[in-house]
Write a structure and sequence with these properties.
This protein has helices at about 1-30, 40-60, 75-100, 105-115, 115-145, 150-160, 170-185, 190-210, 215-220, 225-245. By secondary structure, the protein is mainly α. Helix 3 packs across helix 8 and helix 4 packs across helix 5 (about 115-145). The radius of gyration is 19 Å and the shape is globular. About 35% of the residues are buried. The model has no long low-confidence stretch (mean pLDDT about 90).
């Protein structure tokens, strides 16, 4: 377990080091060329750091894509997993909003969602990297280091939540990480988590483009409708988990 902890610490440090390095380069270029758009430079820095960290994980065998069992994940399982994730997204977002947890990066994300490089980073590249890192590498290391899968899922999800460093994202990412971690453990494949994560971030990006910082309550307007949808979403999550739990026994 000690070796696993050392590996995890190294991976998290690499993750932040790549982000910091490219952010410094972006700020340096902005300082030298005042005409450059800071949001574009920030977005490009995120794209570059994400690509480099993904390369790092694959090149140094922290994640072995050749061993991923994506071909064994049946289409109905993927379909139900996606429904489960969509329903959970609604419930989690509603919980965050009703709890009044501050979103300190909201304006930055809204600005990035209106930039092509920002959308590329938020909707596609970041979700893929985060599944490679937090599920494939970190949860994978923990699964191999001890014989209690729930510990591996819990710890990797906690790290996933904390590294977002944004109060509104921490509980959301932690709970979403638990779902992705469970799917990864049960299927042995990163594919369900990657698809679900890309969809989650893509929906968030589209929502920011269309509605900015308006809340679910403001978008739906009728409080009764909002809570009816919440009940439907919770019921959908429950049924989806039961179905997945039963059918993944045959995976």
């Amino acid at each position: 377990m000690r070796n696993a902890i050392i590996t995890i610490v190294k991976l998290v440090l690499y993750y932040f080091a790549y982000q910091l390095s490219f952010s410094v380069v972006a700020m340096g270029l902005k300082f030298l060329f005042a005409s450059l758009d800071m949001i574009t430079m920030t977005s490009l820095a995120m794209v570059a750091s994400t690509l480099m960290m993904s390369w790092h994980l694959i090149h140094f065998d922290y994640v072995r894509l050749a061993n991923d069992r994506y071909k064994e994940v049946k289409l109905p399982v993927l379909a139900v997993a996606i429904v489960f994730i969509f329903a959970a997204m609604y419930v989690l977002n509603l919980f965050i909003e009703q709890a009044g947890i501050p979103n300190t990066l909201e304006e930055t994300f809204i600005a990035m969602s209106r930039n092509p490089f920002g959308v590329l980073s938020i909707a596609l590249l970041a979700p893929i990297l985060e599944e490679l890192l937090f599920r494939g590498a970190i949860q994978g290391v923990l699964l191999r280091a001890q014989d209690k899968p729930w510990i591996a899922i819990l710890i990797s999800s906690l790290i996933f939540g904390v590294v977002h460093m944004n109060p509104a994202q921490i509980p959301f990412a932690f709970l979403l990480g638990m779902m992705f971690g469970w799917l990864y453990y049960r299927t042995g494949s990163l594919l369900p988590g990657i698809i679900g994560h890309v969809l989650n971030n893509s929906v968030a990006a589209v929502n920011m483009i269309l509605y900015g910082n308006t809340t679910i309550e403001e978008q739906i307007e009728n409080p009764l409708t909002m809570w009816v949808w919440a009940v439907v979403a919770v019921a959908t999550c429950y049924v989806a988990v039961l179905w997945l739990d039963k059918n993944l026994e045959r995976q």
